[in-house]
Amino acid sequence: MEDVLFTVKEVSKLIKTSPDYVYKLINLELLPALKLGSYKVRKTALLKFLEDNEGKDLTDPTKIKYLRGETSNEEETQKENHHKTDTVDNHCVDNYSNKSSNTLCICPTRI
């Protein structure tokens, strides 16, 4: 029978990290687990975790970064919404401070 559940120690060996790191992933709810006396991770949950995090730097799982300059959909949305064109004087307005920008605007609305 194929292993369906892995212990934290087995997961740490499979992904070549320490058990403490696996506990951190579990506590941050990045890696789903269940507790049957001790934490267990389903094989399917581990495979999904690995697939979902491909191309990411999880060295510090509280500050996940993308490798090679890739960005998440959320980061793309923030970049797209960073500048909005003011309808009165057609100047860029910084969404975060609502102040006119003194820098050259290359927003899609101005190009």
Can you give me a brief rundown of this structure?
The chain is α+β, with helices and mostly antiparallel strands and 111 residues long. The chain has helices spanning 8-14, 19-27, 43-52, 73-81; strands at 5-7, 34-36, 38-42, 56-57, 65-66, 83-85, 92-94.
Helical content stands at 25-40%
Low-confidence stretches: 82-91, 93-103
Mean pLDDT: 78
Total DSSP E strands: 7
Q: What's the number of structural domains?
A: 2
Terminal CA distance: 61 Å
The neighbouring-strand order within the major sheet is 1-3-2
Q: Which percent band covers the strand fraction? A: 15-25%
Report the major sheet: 3 strands, antiparallel
Q: Which term fits the overall shape?
A: globular
- Helix-strand pattern: EHHEEHEEHEE
- Judged by helices, strands and strand pairing, the structural class is alpha+beta
How many DSSP helices?
4
As a whole number of angstroms, the C-alpha radius of gyration is 22 Å
